[in-house]
Amino acid sequence: MNQALANRVRNRLITSNAVASHSHVLGALREEGVVLSEESVDELVLILEREFNGAGVLQPLLEERGVTDVLVNGPDSVWCDRGQGLVLTDIKFGSDQEVRRLAQRLASTAERRLDDASPMVDAQLRDGTRLHCVLPPISTDGTIVSLRIPSARSFTLESLVAAGSIDESVADLLVSIIRGRLAFLISGGTGTGKTTVLSALLAHVDPAHRIVVVEDSAELNPAHPHVVRMQSRLANIEGKGSIVLRDLVRTSLRMRPDRIVVGEVRGPEVVELLTALNTGHEGGCGTVHANSPQAVPARLAALGLTAGIEREALHALIGSGLDAVIHLARHGGRRYVDSIHVLDFSESGLVTTRPALTRSNGQWVRQSGWIELLNRCEQGSR
Length: 382
Description:
This protein has helices spanning 3-15, 22-32, 38-53, 59-63, 96-109, 157-162, 168-179, 194-202, 245-252, 269-277, 296-305, 311-321, 370-380, and strands at residues 69-74, 77-81, 86-88, 120-124, 130-134, 144-148, 184-188, 211-215, 227-231, 259-262, 285-289, 324-331, 334-345, 351-360, 363-366. With 382 residues, it is α/β, with parallel strands linked by helices. It folds into three domains: 1-51, no CATH class; 54-150, Beta-Lactamase (2-Layer Sandwich); 157-380, P-loop containing nucleotide triphosphate hydrolases (Rossmann fold, 3-Layer(aba) Sandwich). It has a nine-stranded mixed beta sheet with strand order 9-8-10-11-7-12-13-14-15, sandwiched between helices. Strands 3-2-1-6-5-4 form a six-stranded antiparallel beta sheet, with helices on one face. Helix 1 packs across helix 2. The termini are far apart.
């Protein structure tokens, strides 16, 4: 398809405020004095539909099964992740102006502003795709677009076993953690599958229990009969109407939750979550970005500082509220459970993690925290 012709037809549709329908495209072609075969017209309609209503040249990637991320670093640099790591695609834009126009249109569909006065945007599209854009000169090499595509299917522990992320014995242990109502966090770096594993685990919560999920971006969709989901909201163009995770965690406490789930603990909401876990709300859980399970207490303490809570006070909440950390890792495109730790108070009064189960040369090794983890699971299931 001739790109210059597609651009002319697009401009005519925009000028006449018309949609990219078959009849409107035919009308624009007549005005251009161009006759195309029926097959070429259908191809042009598809191209323009994607540009008007979808993600333009990126739309085929978004519709491709298994794609988790699409990243645009500039007109000639479009990358995607099909579950095996990022690879460079052969998709190209005509210019950075085209990338900018797409970024602005996607932002507008999410009712967000993206221009020189507001050169960055973080939003969620109607289909759940997470959008992040940065315009020049903040991005020095051109407009940057990042798209995180939600999974089209809900993963189960069985599917994670089949994928090699865990084995059956570890799957049974994770179910015991859920049924024992242990409070836990799933830690790991970006793209290690924290949300996927958490969603699979929540499917094993007692069907009679009410799960209240709060997230910045709605991603958790556990196969459970009683789930209430809430999502934070950014301020509008006037800077009003913001609802943050901390507000939602407070609200969740008034909704008779049996389990409070925070999709990702990343700010002051850590105080409300840990306080809830210390006041009778057993079995709460969430995810947190951390490079190792040993770093989780320090990470939580740092987040507590954003709420004005001193380290010692936050560690007291961590030690009495959290039971375990499940750490995930990623290597060579493969995501897997790397270790499970319990949390203990040290002699200094601060919380440390103690390994219960770790991997060594592909084999699981029971560590000093193993018996403590089993005892906690047994006590909680009574």
